[in-house]
Specification:
369 residues, alpha+beta, 13 strands, 28% helix, globular
């Protein structure tokens, strides 16, 4: 790690000025990802601008049922907030499914959204990586890619987005609040906040130099909705998703899906909104056959690599299991659910290498073990 300067921003304008005026300057909040990358030499800022003193550390529950989560709200505070647990439980479950208690006490909402991929080649400065050093190539395509993306990728990058929280927020139609360098505010739907790699995998979001994420707004969930976040990973805790699903379900009186939202983690360079599957399911009774067909349709454009093709069926099964469970919670058991979905019901294994992975299907908000 090379020497760097440190300064503490007194207000948002001063923070933006310090980053724009400084050479290789970066914002610092919890630092749980940034400091690791500095130690590895992946990023080498000359100046860190501490923004933890800025007024973005509150959770504001509104009368209309929406909530504004400040960018500096710690992950531990977000997951434990009563209003979040009661009205947006998928967010609490997703946050608790990631990292460790110590890290969640430091990590912030904005930092969670902006954390970088854990692709091993991105983190290894001795290996070519288009995301870290554009134009050098993607080592993962011909290398170790079991944990990497199967959809939304390009010939330049197959890295995954690592955030659990962002997947839950994607399913809830979150909106990211941003303070541009020149002042004011703009709002960007989370679905447009992240960028697919294309030919420029080094650019991951729509943020411009000096932009500061100030918060995330969650609109009211659909009337009568039930929701959950489910995650398959290689061990019970402190592991990134092999595949994850955030699902929001609202039923009509006849047992059809009045509204359904699905977002996937562990399979794409961005939190992946499964709109093809949503379109097939909306307005229909959630039978086992339809659920599996919808999951299959979502991955029609997938481009898996040899060692991560298993993720596709795993995600299809997890979509079906998640929706099945939520419809049961809503008081409806659909036709065709005689077989018990457990996330590996079609013989999947997490990589076909003898490691079945852990399925957190009954995640309650307590970190196991």
């Amino acid at each position: 790690m090379r020497p760097f300067a440190y300064e503490r921003a007194a207000d948002p304008g001063a923070a933006a000025t310090a980053v724009l005026d400084g050479t290789d300057a970066m914002f610092l909040a919890g630092g749980t990802n940034l400091v690791d990358l500095m130690k590895l030499g992946v990023v080498r800022p000359r100046t860190l601008v501490d923004v933890t003193g800025l007024p973005y550390d509150r959770i504001e529950h509104r009368a209309d049922g929406s909530v504004l989560i400040g960018a500096l709200v710690r992950n531990s505070d977000l997951s434990g907030d009563r209003g979040i647990r009661e009205r947006f439980p998928a967010v609490s479950q997703a946050v608790l499914a990631g990292a460790s208690g110590q890290l969640r006490s430091m990590a912030t909402t904005g930092g969670n959204l902006l954390q970088r991929t854990r692709c091993p080649y991105f983190q290894d400065v001795t290996k070519p990586c288009n995301k870290r050093e554009p134009g050098t190539g993607c080592s993962a395509i011909g290398g170790e890619h079991r944990d990497l993306a199967v959809i939304g990728t390009s010939a330049s990058c197959v890295a995954t987005n690592p955030s659990d929280m962002a997947v839950a927020m994607a399913a809830l139609d979150a909106v990211v609040r941003i303070r541009p360098a020149g002042g004011g505010e703009r709002a960007v739907p989370l679905s447009r906040f992240y960028l697919l790699p294309g030919d420029t995998p080094d650019r991951e979001t729509v943020l411009e130099p000096g932009d500061l994420v100030t918060g995330v707004e969650l609109p009211p969930p659909p009337d009568g909705a039930v929701m959950a976040y489910r995650k398959i990973r290689d061990r019970w805790s402190y592991a990134f998703a092999v595949v994850s699903v955030a699902a929001v379900v609202a039923m009509d009186a006849g047992g059809s899906l009045r509204e359904i939202r699905l977002a996937l983690g562990g399979v794409a360079p961005v939190p992946w909104r499964a709109r093809e599957a949503e379109g097939m399911l909306t307005g229909h009774r959630p039978t086992r056959t339809l659920l599996l067909a919808a999951g299959e349709a979502e991955f029609t454009a997938a481009r898996p690599l040899p060692r991560n093709e298993f993720k596709i069926e795993l995600a299809e099964d997890l979509i079906a299991a998640s929706v099945r469970d939520l419809t049961e919670r809503a008081g409806f058991t659909g036709d065709g659910f005689g077989e018990d979905f457990d996330g590996t019901s079609r013989g999947n294994s997490a990589g076909n290498d003898g490691n079945d992975g852990n399925f957190d299907g009954n995640f309650t908000g307590e970190e196991p073990g």
